[in-house]
Amino acid sequence: METVLPETVRGALRLADRQLRLLAPDDVNEMCAVVRRAAAAIAPVETFYVGLYQGDNTLVLPYIHSAGEHLGADTSRFGKGGMSHWIKTHAKPYRYAYDNGRRCHAGAPMGDGTPSRDVVAVPMFGPESDTVIGMVNTQSLRPDVFDDTFVTALEWLARALALSLDSGVRSPAREQLYRDLPELDHSHLESPIDMLHTATDCLDEVARSVDTLQSRAALLELAQLQQELGRIKDQCRLVSTELAMMALKTPASHDRQYPETLTTREREIADLIAHEMMTNAMIGRRLYISEKTVKAHVSSILRKLGIRQRSELVWYLGEKATDRHG
Questions:
Q1: What's the Rg (C-alpha) of the chain?
Q2: What total of structural domains would you count in the chain?
Q3: DSSP code string of 90-130
Q4: Residues 285, 242 share a domain
Q5: Does one domain contain both 110 and 208?
Q6: d(Cα 104, Cα 232) in Å, to the nearest integer?
Q7: Cβ-based neighbours of 275, under 8 Å, separated by 6 or more
Q8: Which label site among 9, 20, 104, 144 has the fewest CB atoms less than 10 Å from its CB?
Q9: Whole-number Å distance between alpha carbons of 17 and 157
Q10: 325 in Cβ contact with 59 (< 8 Å)
Q11: 268 and 249 in a common domain
Q12: One domain, residues 191 and 94
């Protein structure tokens, strides 16, 4: 039976559909913003985020908006008691009324920390697939504001967003663009080190914008200065979203294999550096070997992995993550 939505809701969805189809295929930030604005036009949404699953227990959040502010992108590790795991496992909408918000509140609250009083989170599916690739989450400080109509509308918006994100990830035009120069294709990162280098390029671009503003600041009126600062802030948010999407496509740390050339002792030391942030002296005490011997092992590890600094081992293996958003 076809769902009949109120005209105001259908109008919000039609507008979102047009806007999504007009966006550039890599403008993930604005795609998510379109869905947020459509949802907020239907019901009072105070917190909104889009999460994309990476592996079995990691959620990459390229877009977060809470209390009227666009927050930076983030990642979250989730366990079996939270909403993220529930969505991924059940492949259907989660609603506050199911458990009085228990699964939602299992994660850290956003905004000013005030617990939400109503929540709807819907799964995002891959194209032509029943696989859950992510979720769209909406929260309100007011109780009982998300009705069945809102859930239906949000499910439609999640499907539209998933299709837009898929076309942005890879298209025939982009395949042709990178065919001769594949090293320029940031959508296919080979390792977290590649992402580190890309992140450095993005931050350098932001730094250049700040340098330019500093050189012109004395010549600008207050309103112009505020406008320029706002532009740089928006640029930082876009970079944050871009890096989150790159993290989603970067091989997960638990899937990464050490080269066979690393010895058992070298792997042990690499793990202590990456996961426990140990210095050479601390490693020496833990393993009952001299600091000089540890230093020799570290030099060998870096050479075999093709990286320059011990700090890059954190990117190679992945940092320990903490639960953030449930």
A1: 23
A2: 3
A3: H-S-EEGGGTTTHHHHTSPP-TTSPPPSEEEEEEEE-TTS-
A4: no
A5: no
A6: 33
A7: 317, 319, 320
A8: 144
A9: 8
A10: yes
A11: no
A12: no
Q: Which two tokens stand for residue 64?
A: 């977060």
Q: pLDDT tens string for the chain (326 positions)? A: 455 788 888 888 988 888 888 788 778 899 999 999 999 999 999 999 999 998 888 899 999 999 888 888 888 888 888 899 999 999 999 999 999 989 888 765 555 567 889 999 999 998 667 789 999 999 999 999 999 999 999 999 998 898 888 764 444 444 554 455 454 455 555 555 566 666 776 777 778 778 888 888 888 888 888 888 888 887 777 777 767 766 666 555 444 556 677 888 998 898 888 777 788 999 999 999 999 999 999 988 888 877 777 777 766 665 433 333 34
Pair (160, 200) in one structural domain: no
159 and 237, same domain (yes or no):
no
- The 10 Å Cβ neighbour count of residue 245 is 22
Q: Which domain holds residue 83?
A: 7-169
Q: Is residue 326 domain-resident?
A: no
Asked if residue 174 is part of any domain, the answer here is no
Element (H, E) at 60: strand 58-66
193, 161: one domain: no
Task: Judge if 47 and 141 occupy the same domain.
Answer: yes
